[in-house]
Write a sequence for this structure.
């Protein structure tokens, strides 16, 4: 269909009304342009991924060459009248012309051969080379198609954007003027071609875009939802989308809960220079003192800098807003920087610190644990400060780093089980420095590839995480003892050669030599004056023996030789491809006893699964290593069918010549035959996939398992996952989680998600949501119950509103705590 709704003009683009919609969502007044995004040097947590049905941005077609050049004019019409005296050609009846890389259609086209001006009367259309289209009852264009006038104007742009106006005037190359105009990215035509009310639109009596000043102004802007006016602003202005970043207000944030009361946060962007931005974001709360957020972003010729800080002066408070304790300063800092020194050398830093371990939860500070700040990551609820320098070229890598940790986890409080205490940061090591390097020569040695890996680290602790003094009447829980300090240097030399035979057999003989040297100090004494802290939090008297807290230098290492074997069998029949591949790995090394005096700092987290099955040394770090004679065997089967259907299965097991005690008991790796490793993925029909992986022990139990399914059909999508890990009693867990969306009409749907802890037989998170979506909007109203207790912050009930608008990319929300 055509008419007042059909599209918007080439020269007005998207900019005219984007800010008006932001005004509707957030606040009237000046609005700053979206700030620049800093490029990331390492993977980051990503912001949430939009659903597939979220409005998208189609790519416009590439310009086409009509072969007429800049001065050619092609014309078709039912009739043509030439008035050479007045330099006018008049074409009538189904007129189509090509001029200046544009297609013109109308009931009547008048072409002035003297001035080059073109007038379109009746159902006028102007289609540009990029696919954008403009419509008008009466349109006048100059010879360069740059200035013009239109009545009954409308235009259709990419991203499904429609603009219409009674009058549209392009006064110059830089100033556009629309009167009685409307903007929407929503469909304005039903599937049968009839007119329909857009989901949301913005109307104004006047819109002016000044590209010289990079400013768009509005008069009497009205926001309509389903045709109903919901917001009015007499004057509004914002930078045009093509302008450089400009100072102004950004989208505010509204929130209500029992802790903060009514909370309003209003960010302001101050553009200091084209490469420097300052965000000032005060948060005003009715129950507590204000909280100030600041962020500084700056680009340099060699890198970028991004630093966030927050500050308040307030008492402590619990999940119900009850205050206690003294007034004091509370703050945080989150920052990162990365800079190039030479084409191969770079350096950077990351800083994450807070004065209050619950500050982020209390004030709902966003994206704390989602973003990556530096080249190292920690697990959730732990902050990391790092300083690093790296060098990398085609065959080598080198890095040196300093690392410091801050724990935010809440541990059980023995004096008050209903609350928690924050983990003791004095037991975390300060890493100064960590040095890592790798060299892969680009030439063969004895027909194979050589790899050299080196590492060195110094760890300093102020208190021991493993032991305290024996309980006394003055100190019932025991007093801290000095923490063990360690210095380690490691080297690993690996050589591999590959032989592939004509029948498909692949052999890879390899040799590996690794060695470590340790210097240890402040070793925990073994006298009866010390108690050991067990994994269950119990104090057990240490074994009697001589006290030995002197420095020690220790050596360990192991040579390993072996061979990797695989023999794939491939069969194709029609659209089916089957690959069966037996795999084996033999590793031979002397039996080396692990010295219990060497602390395990880098191999605490261990998992035996399909990713480590065919690793000669299954430990991820240097402090613990495997030795002896062992054989890893398994088989892999892959089936592929037409239509993207597939199935994959891997089964394997590890055998040892002699038992050991260095692995978690639940893996079976300490025995001469381990648990079976199983991994499977199958897509039996389009839109449905299953996966499973884990361990099967000798009695048929699953000490480690993950089972799940993903599905995406018309109107229904989601996932379900079950996990259990009993390989280590200290870290065992079991839970099930799932989520999905079901649309019972084209636009309306329900969302469900939840996480249930099977170990404690309790829900950690539950939510249900009502969803509305179409081509230009997605609205989700969510009720969420969170059972997790963090210190004095208990469980909570929350209602959130999430809104996403096409072309504006804005998402706002309100939280309501119901407890």
């Amino acid at each position: 269909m055509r008419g007042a709704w059909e599209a918007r003009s080439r020269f007005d683009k998207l900019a005219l009304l984007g800010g008006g919609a932001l005004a509707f969502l957030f606040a009237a007044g000046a609005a700053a342009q979206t700030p620049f995004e800093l490029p990331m040097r390492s993977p980051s947590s990503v912001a949430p991924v939009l659903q597939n049905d979220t409005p998208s941005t189609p790519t416009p077609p590439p310009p086409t060459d009509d072969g007429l050049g800049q001065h050619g004019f092609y014309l078709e019409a039912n009739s043509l009248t030439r008035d050479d005296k007045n330099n006018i050609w008049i074409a009538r009846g189904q007129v189509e012309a090509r001029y200046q890389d544009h297609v013109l259609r109308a009931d009547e086209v008048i072409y002035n051969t003297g001035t080059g001006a073109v007038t379109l009367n009746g159902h006028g259309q102007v289609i540009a080379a990029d696919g954008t289209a403009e419509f008008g009852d009466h349109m006048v264009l100059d010879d360069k198609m740059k200035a013009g006038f239109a009545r009954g104007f409308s235009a259709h742009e990419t991203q499904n954007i429609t603009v219409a106006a009674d009058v549209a005037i392009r006064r110059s190359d830089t100033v556009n003027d629309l009167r009685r105009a409307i903007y929407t990215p929503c469909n304005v035509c039903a599937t049968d071609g009839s007119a329909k009310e857009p989901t949301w639109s913005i109307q104004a009596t006047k819109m002016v875009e000044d590209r010289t000043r990079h400013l768009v102004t509005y008069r009497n802007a009205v926001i309509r939802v389903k045709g109903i006016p919901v917001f009015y602003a007499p004057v509004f202005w914002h930078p045009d989308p093509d302008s450089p970043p400009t100072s102004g207000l950004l989208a505010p944030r509204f929130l209500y809960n029992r802790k903060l009361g009514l909370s309003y946060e209003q960010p302001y962007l101050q553009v200091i220079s084209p490469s420097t931005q300052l965000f000032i974001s005060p948060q005003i709360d009715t129950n507590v003192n204000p909280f100030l957020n600041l962020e500084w972003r700056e680009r340099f010729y060699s890198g970028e800098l991004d630093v966030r800080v927050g500050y308040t002066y307030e008492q402590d408070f619990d999940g119900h807003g009850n205050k206690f304790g003294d007034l004091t300063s509370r703050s945080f800092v989150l920052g990162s920087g990365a800079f190039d020194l030479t084409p191969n050398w770079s350096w950077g830093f990351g800083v994450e610190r807070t004065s209050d371990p619950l500050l982020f939860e209390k004030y709902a500070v966003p994206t704390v644990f989602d973003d990556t700040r530096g080249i190292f990551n920690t697990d959730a609820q732990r902050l990391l400060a790092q300083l690093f320098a790296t060098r990398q070229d085609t065959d080598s890598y080198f890095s040196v780093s300093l690392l410091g940790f801050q724990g935010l986890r809440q541990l059980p409080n023995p004096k008050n089980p209903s609350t928690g205490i924050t983990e003791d940061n004095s037991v975390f090591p300060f890493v100064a420095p960590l040095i890592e390097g790798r060299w892969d020569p680009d030439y063969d040695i004895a027909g194979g590839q050589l790899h050299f890996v080196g590492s060195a680290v110094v760890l300093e602790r102020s208190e021991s995480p493993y032991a305290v003094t024996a309980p006394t009447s003055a100190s019932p829980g025991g007093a801290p003892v000095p923490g063990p300090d360690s210095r380690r240097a490691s080297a690993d030399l690996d050589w591999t050669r590959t032989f592939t035979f004509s029948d498909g057999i692949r052999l890879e003989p390899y040799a590996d030599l690794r060695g470590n040297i340790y210097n240890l100090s402040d070793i925990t004494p073994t006298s009866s004056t010390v108690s050991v802290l067990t994994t269950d939090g119990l104090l057990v008297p240490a074994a009697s023996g001589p006290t030995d807290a002197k420095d020690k230098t220790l050596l360990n290492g192991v040579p390993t030789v072996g061979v990797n074997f695989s023999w794939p069998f491939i069969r194709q029949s029609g659209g089916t491809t089957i690959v069966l591949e037996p795999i084996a790995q033999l590793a031979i090394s002397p039996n080396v006893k692990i010295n219990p005096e060497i602390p395990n700092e880098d191999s605490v987290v261990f998992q035996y699964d399909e990713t480590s099955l065919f690793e000669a040394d299954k430990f991820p770090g240097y402090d613990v290593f495997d030795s002896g004679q062992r054989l890893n065997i398994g088989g892999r089967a892959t089936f592929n069918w037409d239509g993207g259907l597939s199935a994959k299965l891997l089964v394997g097991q590890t055998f040892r010549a002699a038992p050991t005690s260095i692995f978690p008991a639940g893996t079976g790796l300490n025995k001469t035959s381990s648990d079976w490793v199983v991994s499977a993925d199958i897509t039996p029909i389009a839109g449905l996939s299953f996966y499973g992986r884990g361990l099967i022990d000798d009695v048929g139990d699953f000490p480690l398992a993950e089972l799940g399914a993903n599905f995406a059909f018309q109107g229904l999508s989601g996932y379900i996952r079950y996990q259990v890990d009993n390989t280590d009693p200290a870290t065992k867990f079991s839970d099930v989680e799932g989520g999905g969306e079901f649309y019972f009409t084209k636009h309306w749907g329900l969302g469900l998600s939840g996480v249930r802890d099977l170990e404690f037989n309790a829900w950690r998170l539950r939510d249900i949501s009502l969803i509305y979506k179409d081509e230009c909007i997605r609205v989700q109203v969510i009720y969420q119950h969170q059972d997790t207790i963090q210190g004095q912050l208990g469980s909570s009930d929350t209602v959130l509103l999430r809104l996403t608008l096409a072309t504006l990319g804005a998402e706002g929300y309100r939280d309501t705590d119901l407890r």
Q: What stands out?
A: The chain has a mean pLDDT of 80.
